[in-house]
Design a protein that fits this description.
Layout (H helix, E strand, L loop, with lengths): L5 H11 L8 E2 L2 H7 L2 E6 L9 H9 L4 H4 L3 E4 L3 H13 L3 E6 L4 H9 L3 E5 L3 H15 L2 E2 L6 H18 L4 E5 L4 H13 L4 E7 L4 H8 L21 H10 L2 E5 L1 H15 L5 H12 L1 H4 L3 E6 L14
Helix pairs in contact: 1-3, 1-8, 3-5, 3-8, 5-6, 8-9, 9-11, 12-13
Length: 316
């Protein structure tokens, strides 16, 4: 395994700087009171493509040699990583093909196409995605950029946690959602190199709790197509990301579907910003585990804001 290091995160920060936003860190007294802690929200909903995925995608795409880049890139994604790869490829002037499940949110399809990506649809489920992207690679010869089990992607995602630590000052803990584990792995790298005393917690839907079960079992436990409103967190860990979850994540905290929706609505109402359900998982985990974070300075990564406004979870 090519395990990235903190130096890779620092290199990624320099490499992707011209292509991504340094997103703001916001606070909110009302949410802090509810949590009994000082909360610092890293707002990747304001990132390019509306999600943190722009970081890892840009680092991976701009790490390709000129010869490699001529072949273009391909990936599979429920939406945010796909948009990010299409965006990064567009910035580099190369072709991108994105395999997406038919059930992905319409704004994410529109986003990929809007950034110039070619969309190939497949049935939902990890196996279906992997089979479809294998066919694309056979047809095009493109460079495959895995959504999370990739050292360049993980190092790029690590820049999010690094900025949070640089801008918020000392944090006792950082809480980030976990699906395939690219963000949480990068966050572990950032914390270990910049603030070793900061604990990293992963937050996960109860209905897609394979990371929690994997950490408990000591090996990867896969769910092929879990059903959760947090559509960005349906992927299972891979060997590289499991390494970080097993060795560097303090605990995986799970939340119910209702807790996710309630947290999402709370952020919309109290902070006046748009976040998607996957982002709300981390907020819900902090609110649910008040005793764990009481009196602490806690960073929460709001991973994205790509929401289908015609399918809001609280709409009748």
């Amino acid at each position: 395994m090519d395990i990235p290091t903190f130096d890779d995160v620092l290199a990624a920060q320099d490499r992707i700087g011209p292509h991504v936003h340094r997103t703001p860190v916001l606070t909110n007294g009302q949410l802090g009171d509810l949590a009994g802690a000082s909360l610092f929200f890293k707002c990747e909903n304001f990132q390019k493509v509306g999600a943190f995925k722009a970081r890892g995608a840009c680092n991976a795409v701009f790490s390709l040699t000129d010869e490699e880049a001529k072949r273009g890139v391909a990936t599979h994604s429920s939406g945010n990583h796909g948009q990010a790869i299409a965006y990064a490829a567009g910035r580099r002037g190369i072709h991108s093909t994105i395999v997406m499940p038919k059930t992905a949110a319409k704004p994410k399809f529109d986003g990929v196409r809007g950034y110039g990506g070619e969309v190939v649809t497949c049935p939902p489920g990890t196996r279906s995605r992997e089979e479809a992207v294998a066919a694309v690679l056979e047809r095009t010869g493109a460079n495959f950029i895995h959504p999370f089990d990739d050292a360049h992607v993980i190092a790029g995602q690590g820049t999010c946690g690094l900025e949070l630590l640089q801008d918020a000052g000392h944090l006792d803990a950082i809480v980030a959602p976990v699906g395939g584990g690219g963000l949480i792995s990068g966050t572990c790298l950032a914390a270990s190199g910049f603030s070793p005393a900061t604990k990293v917690y992963a937050a996960e839907p109860e209905q897609a709790d394979d990371a929690c079960r994997s950490k408990r079992a000591g090996h990867i436990v896969e769910d092929d197509a879990p059903q959760t409103i947090a559509d960005g967190l349906k992927a299972s860990l891979k060997p590289l990301t499991f390494h970080f979850v097993a060795n560097h994540v303090s605990e995986v905290l799970t939340v119910s579907e209702k807790e996710i929706v309630d947290a999402m609505r709370l952020v919309w109402e109290r902070m006046k910003i748009v976040i998607e359900p996957s982002s709300a998982v981390a907020v819900a985990a902090v609110l649910k585990n008040r005793e764990l974070f009481a009196g602490q300075r806690v960073g929460i990564i709001l991973t994205g804001g790509n929401v289908d406004l015609d399918r809001l979870p609280w709409a009748g």
